[in-house]
Amino acid sequence: MAGHSKWANIKNKKEKTDSQRGKIFTKIGREIAVAVRSGGSDPNANSRLKDIIAKAKANNVPNDNIMRSIKKASGDVGSDAFEEIIYEGYGPGGVAVIVEALTDNRNRTAGDVRHIFDKYGGNLGTNGCVSFMFDKKGQFIIEKTKKVDEDNLMIAALEAGALDVIGENEYYEVLTEPEDFSKVLDKLENDGYSFETAEVAMIPQTTTILSDEDMSANMEKLIEKLEDLDDVQNIYHNWEQE
Fold it and tell me: What pTM was estimated for this model as a whole?
């Protein structure tokens, strides 16, 4: 994965408009609700909720919003029957794409996702058609600043159980096994580190570069339109921008 392209994607996510940020807050609120209803409202006893709270903070969701989502979910058990669905497919030029959704209408979401893949030069595949090309890992992205010492970060992360700390041009990437994400999160937070992203994600094993400008434009549109769908929570792909 190219450090520059990944950092550009992260910065782009950070610089969303107010309306786009509002949509992100809503989607994370839905994730929090599902986590609370499946495992309770105490993040110390519900690792999934704890992981989503970390993701929420990295996306600048205010603490008040997080607490409201938890309280609402605790009091509205059973009011929304969201189903977790994963779609897999190929974007232009064979780019591998994984789409994670939470929906109360499977047919609607499947139709919307399929339409976007078809419209922008991709095709929706069957479960398992691309997931073997990704590894599920805990991932922290920490911006390189004068306050962040690489050696200290590496020692802290590895002692907490991280798999690796990778230094790129503008950031550090800390990778963990999914089950060690919360443990590493606690250690790094206690040591004062802040995160550009913090989540359990699907990390591509290899990447695909699109040299054709039209394919690149379509791939960008495909991601953008999928992100606009209310039911879509996360999108993972192995597209590496030049």
Answer: 0.85
